[in-house]
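Exercise 7. Predict the joint structure of the components listed below.
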Amino acid sequence: MKKKNSLLKKLANKAYEFGFVSKIKTDIIETGLNEDTVRLISEKKNEPEWLLEFRLQAYRHWLTLDMPTWAHLEIPSIDYQAISYYADPLKKNKENKNKEIDPELMKTFEKLGIPLEERLALSGTAVDAVMDSVSVKTTFKEELKEKGIIFCSMSEAIQEYPDLVRQYLGTVVNYRDNFYAALNTAVFSDGSFVYIPKGVRCPMELSTYFRINAANTGQFERTLIVADDDSYVSYLEGCTAPMRDENQLHAAIVEIVVMENAEVKYSTVQNWYPGDAEGKGGVYNFVTKRGDCRGRNSKLSWTQVETGSAITWKYPSCILRGDNSQGEFYSVALTNNYQQADTGTKMIHLGKNTRSTIISKGISAGKSQNSYRGLVRVSKNADGARNYSQCDSLLLGDKCGAHTFPYMDIHNNSAIVEHEATTSKISEDQLFYCNQRGIGTEEAIGLIVNGYAKEVLNKLPMEFAIEAQKLLSVSLEGAVG
Amino acid sequence: MENLLEIKNLHATIDGKEILKGINLTVKAGEVHAIMGPNGSGKSTLSNVLVGHPAYTVTEGEVIYKGKNLLELAPEDRSHEGLFLSFQYPVEIPGVSITNFMRAAVNAKRQYLGLEPMNATEFLKMMREKRALVNLDSKLANRSVNEGFSGGEKKRNEIFQMAVLEPTLSILDETDSGLDIDALRIVAEGVNKLKREDTSSIVITHYQRLLDYIKPDIVHVLYNGKIVKTAGPELVMELEERGYDWIKNEN
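Solution:
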């Protein structure tokens, strides 16, 4: 008992490591959402007419929609009029028309381990740093440009490469797709844009770091990645937010276009503020991520480690359009305390001999609810399609829930679809075995959970994998007394 | 010789049922003790209580180990202080390689002793040496802890861990169970190689055959939660010939 109490105490004292608030003068528009809000955002970003029209169409469609209720989530009602849809932490200096980066802002990203000065950068990683609604800085832009690679903020891409953006934006995730996709299309502020030209292997990892700072704002970022024929890129995404008592909304769209023989790896370590131990506060993470494998032999691989957010609603998916194209989804979703996650993937087999792999590892602790939801669809013409799905759940304690909702929709008799699922618990005997070898209970849980998730963690780029391992251990601290 | 372990009038329960009913036992540095006895006499309970398994409650008595009150130490600290249990049924830990597992164990102990973590090169070299000592296949060392291991492989892995952690007092709980004669010999040879003048062992077994390889200095018979007989190694032969019934009848 003594031990249990000290563990609980430790949990109570354990602060979310990224929960600080930065004091940065931020230009925040008034709360509320109507056509004028959409126009204001578009105007602030100096957007072309077609984009404003695109936003307005989405907004009008959004008005006709209701929040989806099919997920295994209890979502409190959200007052969309109480949210501010644009917050800009870059101050505008009247004498100097250029936006300056506030030193506080530089410090914030440094504190998060994301230095914005190139000389301090992690080796081989270019970063686009997004705070609230605005991209703050993108590193190594010039080096990449020499190879013809475009890596910049979405706002900049709209100004500098309007034709490319117009050609691809909204072609993978239509604003009619769902409630949050419509909302995002109407009010999206910033995000990253990546274009890899034909035959180019991107020489460094590209990454975007998303940070919500301002209170009562939503973050609606939009990322678009286009990998042209025979190209390759590995892209990383990380997210954190301050600890606040109110919930914050994050509704993003990620669209990926993969052309013939091209390969895209997209890795996420999602660590938005999960709320406190009593379930107060935390980010609502309602995200639509989808990639379209448009050419022959194109390949898209999603890897996600989801440890943050109060509520996660997220299904990174692959449309396997080109013949022989491949989709992969590797996921670790960890929920603790009162967190809820409903996450999984959709693999849509349209082309011949398309293959997909789904490996999902759910970890539930505390009073959390953790669901895997996945769809494998094989269309009439997708001869020789194959899917392998493995969905494992690990329960820590007896007050949490793990659920699996696999859907299969098969219209071709030559398809081979396999599904395996397991549910397990960390046993007292496993923990004691570790204790006897001198390994304390918390470290033992971290070790066992990391072992359980190893298959997915191995898919992450090295530096990310180490971070993710630590994150899994920290997120579970105090989960078992 | 110094007393390494002193058990005085130890009583322990599981689920409210008393299993140990007043154990007295003293182990001096360098000694090998055998604890024998029929099934259900409390042998495994005694080893679990000594290493601090949370399912058992000590209701009376004390245990002094290296001059410290052992019962006040957390299980991991008992390990750091040199107490090792070779489990009767080692558990599987999927996805955790033996190398990672042992690195966590070794570094936890070093931290307890105020030492820096061992660097990777040094650690891997040590692992190789210990593996050779107990004839553990290098392929086995890269697999997950006990996952899919045969009975013999599991026991050999226990002895390997013992070699790495270099305990002062090792308890071998029915290490012979589930082993054929060759596996038994290999495991016993490993244990003998690890024996030093200042380390002690408690060998818990139902049968004589393990004690053909690991020679005890002192033999105890545990029956109904108490040590009812203590003698020299000759007791092993007597038990083998006469079985446990005469002991049951005497008590």
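Discussion. Chain B touches chain A through 31 residues (CB under 8 Å).
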